[in-house]
Design goal:
Oligomer: single chain
Structural class: alpha+beta
Number of helices: 13
Length: about 400
């Protein structure tokens, strides 16, 4: 069974949500099984990831409970069962959706996980691209109560989930403190606030000043078309190079597959003509070797084709960079604080505030993904967030007296 999994075949258990089992090639006297994408279920998986990472129709990134509520309201089921938060969380963590299923993960007798190096990887079709999956994992990690308290996830401060203390040997989160009955707002180190005033040397800073410094830095040092072009040049070149390598590899695999199928066909013709004896052990071993080689080549070809199908070429032109830069600058200057915060967290991974200055960090991969989405949608869809609201009414409606 371990060898079967390593060769890319399914061992017979219930397939993960988003997949179904299909008959594969005949090996010896057994018909092998393959894991293939179930289009209907895979569409639900893609929607869950998009809701969690990007949002839908201007809703902004959704939490687990919001996704569950939406899916159940629309009568979307998980194989006949209603969604709950834990099933959505489990779905978002499964590596099978980026093409990696693992066999031999758990000791069936002891009921415990084996060391990861003992797991056997089976390559399966890709449902979710790696960038979206990685973004989901970062958000899941960040929103753990042990890492980010719920009050900070929903905080009105712009840096509530990404702000960190940059003083030496600290790294705690930044929290909001107020003065004069809430008229003044300051950012301070959580360690200094909750432990002792001398536990950290970071002074309090006016929240408005820090917010302005961060946004101004992004406007002038990042969100300029020429600056974006320089930042992404190496990454886009690397992406194009990887795509070209996959294309060459695919052509080589197809040629090799044609040669192997021809060699096997010639052996079978020789057996039928009586030139080779099928009862000969060497002949049978050579036929089995050819069969296994053909199956391996077919599996690798399917994997590369799935990668290219799920990762379309990203056309990032000067016009796209102009639209993206303008869109982000306008969003970061929005009067809606939650709207600005959603855009900022898509663009920035961390902001460290110290007495020496402010350090802003992000990843080029995330930046390229965002810009590519603008390209794919002609600038019409950029992940946004705006809380549900009602004009001229309080957001927490109560029954009228």
């Amino acid at each position: 069974m371990a060898a079967n999994a390593a060769a890319g075949y399914w061992n017979g258990s219930r397939p993960p949500f988003g997949f179904r089992v299909e008959d594969g090639p005949l090996v010896g006297q057994r018909r092998k099984k393959l894991l293939v994408i179930d289009a209907t279920e895979a569409a639900v998986v893609k929607r869950v990831f998009n809701l969690y990472v990007y949002g839908e129709h201007g809703s902004g990134p959704q939490g687990l409970k919001a996704i569950v509520t939406r899916l159940n309201h629309e009568n979307v089921c998980l194989r006949g069962k209603r969604f709950i938060a834990s099933t959505v969380s489990d779905l978002l963590r499964r590596e099978v959706y980026v093409g990696r299923h693992y066999y031999n993960m758990r000791d069936s007798k002891a009921g415990i996980l084996r060391p990861r190096e003992e797991w056997i990887e089976t390559r399966v079709p890709i449902v979710i691209d790696q960038d979206t999956f990685d973004a989901a994992q970062r958000r899941l990690a960040m929103n753990k109560p042990q890492v980010t308290p719920p009050r900070r996830v929903n905080s009105p401060t712009l840096l509530s989930t990404i702000g960190k203390c940059g003083e030496p040997n600290c790294g705690a989160g930044l929290i909001l403190v107020t003065g004069k009955g809430g008229r003044y707002r300051y950012l301070t180190c959580q360690t200094r606030r909750t432990m002792a005033s001398d536990a950290c040397s970071l002074p309090n800073y006016r929240m408005a000043d820090v917010d302005e410094a961060v946004i101004a830095a992004l406007e002038h040092k990042l969100l300029q078309p020429e600056r974006l072009k320089d930042l992404l040049a190496g990454l886009l070149e690397k992406t194009d190079s990887a795509r070209a390598e996959r294309k060459q590899r695919l052509a080589h695999l197809r040629r090799t597959l044609t040669e192997s199928e021809g060699a096997r066909a010639r052996m079978l013709d020789a057996i039928e003509a009586g030139a080779l004896d099928f009862r000969d052990t060497v002949v049978r071993e050579r036929l089995d070797a050819r069969r296994q080689e053909i199956q391996r080549l077919q599996q690798e070809i399917r994997t590369i084709e799935d990668q290219d199908r799920d990762r379309p070429a990203r056309q990032i032109t000067p016009g796209v960079l102009d639209r993206f830069a303008k869109m982000m600058r306008e969003a970061l200057r929005s009067e809606d604080y939650s709207f600005r915060k959603a855009y900022l967290t898509l663009l920035v991974a961390e902001v460290r505030l110290s007495s020496a200055g402010i350090t802003i960090r992000g990843t080029k991969g995330e930046l390229e993904t965002l810009i590519a989405k603008v390209s794919e949608t002609d600038g019409q869809l950029v992940p946004t967030f705006a809380g549900n609201w009602r004009a001229q009414q309080d957001s927490n409606l109560r029954p009228r007296a």
